[in-house]
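User: Please predict the structure of the protein below. I'd like the answer in structure-token form so I can feed it into my own downstream comparison script.

Assistant: Understood. Taking the following sequence of 353 residues as input:
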Amino acid sequence: MKIMIVDDNRTYLMVLRGVVNNIGRHEISVFANPLEALAAAETTEFDLILVDYLMPEMDGVAFIRALRQLPNHHHQPIVMVTTAEQRETRIAALDAGATDFLRKPVEPVELRVRVHNLLQLREAQTLMRDRAAWLASEVRQATQELVESQRDMARRLSRAIDCRDGHTGDHVARMAGLCRLIAQGLGLGDEQCETIFAAAPMHDVGKIGIPDSILQKPGRLTEEEMALMRTHVSIGEAILADGQSSLMRCAERIASSHHERWDGKGYPRGIAGQAIPIEGRIAAVADVFEALCADRVYRPGWPLGDARDFIRSGSGSHFDPACVAAFEARWSEIAALMRTSQAPASSVVAQAG
């Protein structure tokens, strides 16, 4: 334990130190100047403080108040040594943060007993603090493991759906990466960006309910087939509904709104502007851009620059202008992501506007 003793009377300072030194093998620091004591407390966490009341530069009450303002001295026991039983002084000291009082001349036996009891209190306090910190660390680790387990499940489910759609599984990874970059470009917090990144791969989970004859058709869909294909949004929303985690709730919002348009001409609800969840607005840009750049059985993928121009042209109609601006702000990273993640290098990925 580290004990601080502050008293401007050097003789009494040594007397207090001698008595306290007999209690146990503790580290004792003595200060005749309260300002020097405060400076030491800024870098050293003391476990018990004994401070005189009457000192010329700063009285005991002012010292305690200043000490309690230090981030490492909020809870330690502090004993103020007084020469009189003045009620006002004691109230002021308690208000400043004093724990106990001793009256001069100090009785050595009383001093030893009180210091011993307060050190035991401090030891129990420290053990409780360390235990609480350990428990908090365990909870954080368990929470992180749970979150990672949910994200792993989402990634695997998304890859399975993507493969059924005739892709290799890279589509969802690229789309999720694009969503994170756009979210970062919007200035969203790190936690929200990571949640969107983890949830985005489930945007097309509803395709599990679409027949293979439509999903894997080597050509454009008829109007009837397109109407059926569009039901993947409501199917996905139903699959992800009533999620208990922030990840699943975010995934539901993305699945249900990533085909909505800023001008209200999207589906399934035809909502417009900021009525569309921000996650859906982000996913709309990322999904369209990735789809344009990807090779399909009925057409080759677009060059990056052409796909970028398409996103720009849809600002304020198809897409949220803020999301397009964020897309533009992160363009160098988006182009790099597409180059490094798409299947073998070709003219499709060799061009960047």
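That's the full token string. The beta strands are 2-6, 27-31, 48-52, 78-82, 100-103.
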